[in-house]
Amino acid sequence: MKGIVFTELIEMVESDLGIEIADRMIAGGNTQNSGAYTAVGTYDHAELIHLVVALSQETSIPVSELVRTFGKHLFVRFFELYPQFFSGIESATQFLPLVETYIHVEVRKLYPDAELPSFECQQTGEVLAMTYRSKRPFADLAEGLVLACVDHFADAIEVARTDIGEKNGTEATFTLTPKTTNCLLAETV
Amino acid sequence: MSELELLNRRFERERKARKEAESLLEQKSLAVYEANQKLQRMADQNRAIVETAAEGILSYDENGTISAFNRSARLIFKCPSMVGKSISSVFAMDDSCRAVLFPASNVATDVFPPGAELATTDDTEVCQFTLPDAIEVAATKFDGKPFQSEVAVSRCQRGDGVVFTAVVRDLSKRKAMESRLRQAQKMESVGQLAAGIAHEINTPIQFVGDNIQFLQSAFNDLAGLIDLFEQLEKAVAEETPTAELLEKIATERELADLPFLREEFPGAIEQSLSGIERVAKIVRALKEFSQPMSEAKTSIDVNRSIENTLAVTANQCRNVGHVELDLSADLGLVSCLAGQMNQVWLNLLTNSLDAVTEHRAEGERHIRISTRLVANDSLEDEVEVCFEDNGPGIPAAIQERIFEPFFTTKEVGKGAGQGLSFVHDVIVEKHGGIIYVQSPPQGGTRVVVRLPIQCDSSIQRRTHARSAY
């Protein structure tokens, strides 16, 4: 996993919860390099899990919620660091299909060895179904990213998550439905 | 834990991270350097390949500004590097040339026929045209001398625009060789025809000569009798004795054998006139047959054209015994290149003659030529000419190749492989007709030519078809 995920996690914890909690998270995570991450390095994804579990123990916040929150933070940071990917995009349903076909293609150019998750999108009318698949159990992280994306574009969209496969967090489908459609359906019912 | 201690621990993590980042940066720099070296080698190699390629290679952008111009291109166009110059300085940029040199991304143009393929790569759109037929384009050498070139163009969509790459071949030598080959073939045909015609003329000339010698000899005999008759006429008029004269006349008449001469003279004269007519007919046919290869179409009588062909090949046809003709009387005239059409019949007839002569015994050889008026799919009238023979036929395996230039089944030194290629070119390309061959497994060949009454290749150009029974 790319180091930027680790450095962003530590920075988020430092910023939101303070330097002491961040230090405890690193100490509790008992990682191989004692929390010395560089954004351009590549590290074992298990270390991130150890860090989040340690943070959960320190804060008593469930791991899934922490990871989802981190996903939202990551999206904001990605927008700050890589604004070119967002140029000319006006909605989440327009942006999310580009993750696989454009953003991941560009990432692979810089990091040919990057092991990226797959995001398969299927548009049916106004409903977008985005299926996340990875070797790693980070469906929560993906959910945080998707939710932050919807917030970023201020879309009136509801996101529903369905865990699929072995339901261990490696596969999930996120269904993005316009809120107005739901209202109409509710009125009809 | 004190804040200072926390900051120290954080500082230590940051320091370690920085060192790791520096190490990674060094590794990355090394990797980039090695990649650069590799790219440089590849670029050098590619440059060497392009520069030493046997064909001219030019790259240019949408405005026609040349960005690459290899060594062969410089040799072909006899010029220094044209990088930075316009493509129009080496090609005659008419509409058709422009369409070839600047193919659109949607390849369905008239210039690129079905078969042109579009290939794409992951990050680059490349239109690679695989052309079933080479495209000939008029080009200009640096000294202004025009020449025919063969061009294949690919189109490459890059981030910063479109790049076209043209592979160019100079066709001057090939055109000259084809011209020489055609001339040589023509001369060979002319030689064969001349030998046959000489033989055809020789026979009647011989018996006409014999008859005239006979008439001359007979006239010498008759001349003495005529003198005696004149003397007799004078003696009678002067009332002098005529007995001696009458005796002389009787003797001379006996010697001249007048009954024999009276019987033989009409035959000799008739035979001589017939011989002279035969010669005149051959000369007439030859004159019509060997009219210049005009580029202008004229109206011809196809039946007469075939008869002329038979007349000039009478000597070769005699080996067959009899070439059966079934010519329809209601064909009318066909607008075509008369001289080339005569050559077509000659080629088809020669093929049939060779086939039956080599593979059939005397008395078994059979060639039949027929013509008829037929309607095509559009219900327009066409003239159909059919050459049939009972030779060995054409094996199915080679039926696809018989119209290829230089393809021949004849032994080395006998066939140039140009006959059917020429026939195809004339019938299909120049007259918009069709030609197909049928050859059943048991032998025999049937070549069918169909010509529109108004032959205009620009209106309809149809490919030949081949079919087996």
Automatic annotation (TrEMBL), chain A:
Pfam families: HNOB. Gene3D superfamilies: H-NOX domain. Residues 2-159 form the Heme NO-binding domain. Signal peptide: none annotated. It comes from the Bacteria. Coiled coil: none annotated. GO terms for molecular function: heme binding. This is Heme NO binding protein. It comes from Rubripirellula reticaptiva. The lineage of its organism: Bacteria, Pseudomonadati, Planctomycetota, Planctomycetia, Pirellulales.
TrEMBL record, chain B:
SUPFAM superfamilies: ATPase domain of HSP90 chaperone/DNA topoisomerase II/histidine kinase (SSF55874), Homodimeric domain of signal transducing histidine kinase (SSF47384), PYP-like sensor domain (PAS domain) (SSF55785). CDD domains: HisKA. InterPro entries: HATPase_C_sf (IPR036890), HATPase_dom (IPR003594), His_kinase_dom (IPR005467), HisK_dim/P_dom (IPR003661), HisK_dim/P_sf (IPR036097), PAS (IPR000014), PAS-assoc_C (IPR000700), PAS-like_dom_sf (IPR035965). Residues 196-455 form the Histidine kinase domain. Residues 133-183 form the PAC domain. GO terms for molecular function: phosphorelay sensor kinase activity. The keyword Repressor does not apply. The keyword Transcription does not apply. Its EC number is 2.7.13.3. It comes from the Bacteria. Pfam families: HATPase_c. Transmembrane segments: none annotated. It is an enzyme of class 2 (transferase). Keywords: Phosphoprotein. It catalyses: ATP + protein L-histidine = ADP + protein N-phospho-L-histidine. This is histidine kinase. It comes from Rubripirellula reticaptiva. The lineage of its organism: Bacteria, Pseudomonadati, Planctomycetota, Planctomycetia, Pirellulales.
